[in-house]
Amino acid sequence: MRQKILNALIGIVVALLLGAVLLLLQGYDPLATYEALFRYSLFGYYPFATTLRNAVPLVLPGLSAAIAFASGVVNLGQPGQLVMGALFATVGGLYLDLPPALMIPVLALLSMLGGLLWAGVAALLRRFFDMSEFIVTLMLNMIADFFTAWAITEPFKDPAAFSPMTPQINPNGWLPKWGEFNTMILFMFAAVILAWFVFNRWKAGYEWRITGQNALFARLGGCNINRNFMAVMLMTGALAGLAGGLVVMGGPHRFIRGLGANYAWDGVMIAIVANNGLIATFLYGLFFSAIQTGALGMELITSVPNEISQVLQAVLVLVIVASREYLNTFVEQRAARRRAREART
Amino acid sequence: MTNNPTLIEMRHIVKVYPPSVLALDDVTVDFRRGEIHSIVGENGAGKSTLMKVLYGLTQANSGEIIYKGEPVHFREPGEAIAAGIGMVHQEIVLIPEYTVWENIVLGVEPVNWLGKIDRQRARQLVKQKIDEFQFNLDPDARVESISVAARQKVEILTLLYRNVEVLILDEPTAVLTPQEIPQLFAELNRLRDGGHTILFISHRLEEVLELSDRITVMRKGKKVDTVPASATTRQELARMMVGRDVIFTTRRKPQPPGEAVLRVENLSLREDHGRVRLNNLNFEVRAGEIVGVAGVEGNGQFELVNTLMGIQKPTSGRIFIRNVDITHFDILQRRQYISFVPQDRGKMGASLVAPLWEDAIMTHHRLNPRFSQWNGLLLNTRFAQQFTRDLIENFSVVAPSPRAPFRTLSGGNQQKVIVGRELLLQSDFVLLDQPTRGLDVGSMEYIHDQILRIRAEGRAVLMISADLEEIFLLSDRILVLYRGQLVGNLPVEQTNPQEVGSLMLEGQVQSS
C-alpha cells in the first residue's frame, strides 16, 4: 500500500518536473501553467464538478479493463462495447417514453446490455471456436465503430441535422443535474463500489483473481474456468457499455459521430497504470480527468497549447509503470543487501 | 592431481536472492588446475548458485574470485568464456534443425575474405576438435536426430571449440540413461588428463566418488568441507550433506489394509497421433495403504495424474472411488473424493502472488459450506482467515500472517500449506505427485510423517515419486510404470531396490 502511494507520488512529481522542463524549453512559465492547470480542474466548484464528470467515461472502461486483465481475460473491446452501449441507450431513449424514475435506470440497463452483448459475441467465439478474445475484441471494435456510424446516418438519423447524428432522446431519459454536478457521477461511484465488492468479496471474484494469477491452479482447485471467463467477459462488457450510455444521457443527449472519442483507450491505459487495481483505477482516472479538464481552462488564460496535457499523460504513464518495477526491485535489493550484511557478521 | 597448483579461488562469497534467501553464506573454496572437482549437496544447498557466480550468470553480494592469480569479476557468461571458463547447463540449448558443426561454430564462425561463413573450414575445424577429444560424433548429423547424450557432447564441444580450460557441468548425468554415464565419465577423464579443469555438480554420491579427485560438500548455503575423494565414503558424504546420520529405515508400522478405495480398470490413454501414453492399467489402492508409483520420468506418471484428476480424458477404461464411477466427473466433482498434491507448487499447487490465505482455501471454498455467505454468493473472509490460521498452526507453517504473499514463504513452508490444505479436505483418496521434491530434510521428514499419519487414519494414498528411497521408505506396495504399462505390482516386503530399478529401466527383471 505505502509502496503504491510512493509509486504514484514519484510518478506524478517526476512527470510534472519533466513537463516543466519542456515548458521552459518552449519559453513558458511552468509554475503559472501548472497553477492554471489545477485551478481549472480541482480548485473550484465548477472545475471540480467538470473533472468528476469527465472522469466517468475514463473510469468505467478502466474498471472494465482492470477486472478483465486481473482475471486473465484479455478484453480489449472497451471502445466497441462503449459505443454499442451508447447506441442501445440512444435507441431506447428515442422510442421509449417512461417517467424519469424508470426511464433513467432502463436506459442505463440498456446500455449495459449493449456492451454485454457485444462482449458476449467475443466470449462465445472463444468458447465454441477457441478464437482468442484478444484478437476478436479488437476486431469487434472496428465493426462496432462502423455499425454505429451506419446506424446514425441511416435508420436513426435526425432528419433535421446536416451531419450524422440521432435526434435528441426523450428528456425523461436525461440525467438531472445537482447544481453543477451531473448525476452521472453517482452511477460511476456505484459502479466502482459494486465492482470492488464483486471482485473482492464474492466467491466468483476470488476465483477470477486466482484464475488471473494461475489458471491451472484454479482449474485443479475445482474452479469452473469456462463459466468464470464468460462472467468476466459479460460483466466487463456491461461496464464499458454503461460508460457509453452515461455519455449520451448526461451530455449531448444524442449519439453524435465521434461520441466514443478516445475514452475507452484512455481507460485501458489507466488500468495498466493502476496495475489493474480497482481503487487505483478510480483514483488515476480522476487524476487523468483533472489533467484533461484543466488543460482546456489553462489554454484560455495562458498561451500554452492544451496538447501539453497529452505530453503530461504520456510521461505519467511511462514514469509510473517504469518506476513500479524499479521500486519493487529496489525494495527487494535493499532487503537482500541487509541480509548479506547480516550474513557477513 | 590433488597437488596441482590452485587455478581458481573463490573467497568469502555471499549471495542473497532478493528479498532474503541466503543462497551462499560466506563460501570459500579453491579449485586446482587439472582436477575433477565435484560439488555435492541437496537441492537448494547453493551448489548451482556458486557456479553461476563463478560463471558470471549472477552476481555475488560480496566476496572475491581469484583466477590465475588475478582477481576477476565476470559480469556476464561471455566474459567468463573469453577468460576460459564455460558452463554446460541442465537444459540443453541447441538449435535442433542445425547440424552438429553448425551449432558448435554458431557465434564464432570462421569467415572468408568476403565476410561469408567459410563452411568448409568451419566443418573441418569442428571435425578436428571431435577427433582431438575422441568424442565419437558425426559433425553433419542434425541435432534433432541425435540422442540426449550426444547433444550434451555437442554442448561440451561448443565450449572446447572456444578454448575454455575450465568446464562446469550442472548435473550432467540427470538426463542420461545409466548406460550412457560411463562414456561421459571416460570423456571427462580424458579431458582432465589433457589439462582441463572440471567442476561437476551432482547429488548422486556414487558417481561423485567414482569420478572426482576432490569433493566439496555444501549444505544450506555453507561449505561444509572439501575432501579428497579417495579419503571419504558415501556414508560420510551423506552425513555432511544432511548434517546428521541418515537413517534409511522406515517408521511405517504394520497395518492390515482395508477395502479398496481407488480402483482403476483397463485405463488407457492414446494420443491423437497414436502414441500410447497409458496402456491398460489395472490396480487398486486400499484404505490405510500407501502405494508408491516408481518409474523413470516420462513413462506415464504425468498422464496417470492427469487422467485421475480429469485434466485429460482417458481413451478407455474406468476409475472408481469407493465404487463411484468418477471417469466422467468434472474436476470439482472429483475433488469431493480426491486430495491432490501436485508436483509443481508454483504451476499447479498455488498462486505465488496471492496472499497465503487465498491459496489455503482453494477447493474448500466450494466444498465446505462454512466458507459461504449470502447463499453461496459471498466468500466468508473471516472464516477463511480463521481456517488459514488453524492450518498454519496445525501444519507447523512458518509464516508471518495469513496475508503474507505466498511467494515470500520458503519452499518447505509452501509445500506444508499445500499438503495441509489437501489433507484437510478429508477425502478418502489422496494423490501425491512428488510430494517432497526440492525440499530440505526437515520439511521432507515432516511431510513423510503426515503421509504416515493419514495412512494410520485409514485413507488410501497413491504416491508418485522419482525418489526410490522415498518410495521404499513409505510404501506398502510399489507399482512400476514402464512406457505407460504397469510392469510391477509388488508388496514392499517382497522386493528390493535392485528389482524395482531394473523394472524401471528395462520393463522386466534381468535374468542374471
TrEMBL record, chain A:
GO molecular-function terms, A-Z: transmembrane transporter activity
Record keywords: Cell membrane, Membrane, Transmembrane, Transmembrane helix
GO cellular component term of the entry, any: plasma membrane
UniProt key word Oxidoreductase: no
Subcellular locations according to the entry: Cell membrane
Origin superkingdom: Bacteria
Entries under Pfam families matching the protein: BPD_transp_2
Membrane-traversing stretches: 5-25, 45-70, 82-98, 104-125, 134-153, 181-199, 229-248, 268-291
Bilayer disposition of the protein: Multi-pass membrane protein
PANTHER family documented for this protein: ABC TRANSPORTER, PERMEASE PROTEIN (PTHR47089), GUANOSINE ABC TRANSPORTER PERMEASE PROTEIN NUPP (PTHR47089:SF1)
Annotated protein name in UniProt: ABC transporter permease
Provenance organism: Bellilinea caldifistulae
UniProtKB/TrEMBL annotation, chain B:
Molecular function per GO: ATP binding; ATP hydrolysis activity
Protein topology in the membrane: Peripheral membrane protein
Cellular component, GO annotation: plasma membrane
Major site of localization recorded for this protein: membrane
CDD domains: ABC_Carb_Monos_I, ABC_Carb_Monos_II
Subcellular location: Cell membrane
Domain ABC transporter intervals: 8-245, 262-508
InterPro entries in the record: AAA+_ATPase, ABC_carbohydrate_import_ATPase, ABC_transporter-like_ATP-bd, ABC_transporter-like_CS, P-loop_NTPase
One family name in Pfam for this protein: ABC_tran
SUPFAM superfamilies, per the entry: P-loop containing nucleoside triphosphate hydrolases
Keywords from the named record: ATP-binding, Cell membrane, Membrane, Nucleotide-binding, Repeat, Translocase, Transport
Glycoprotein listed as a keyword: no
Domain of life of the source: Bacteria
Keyword Kinase: no
Record-given protein name: ABC transporter ATP-binding protein
Organism encoding this protein: Bellilinea caldifistulae
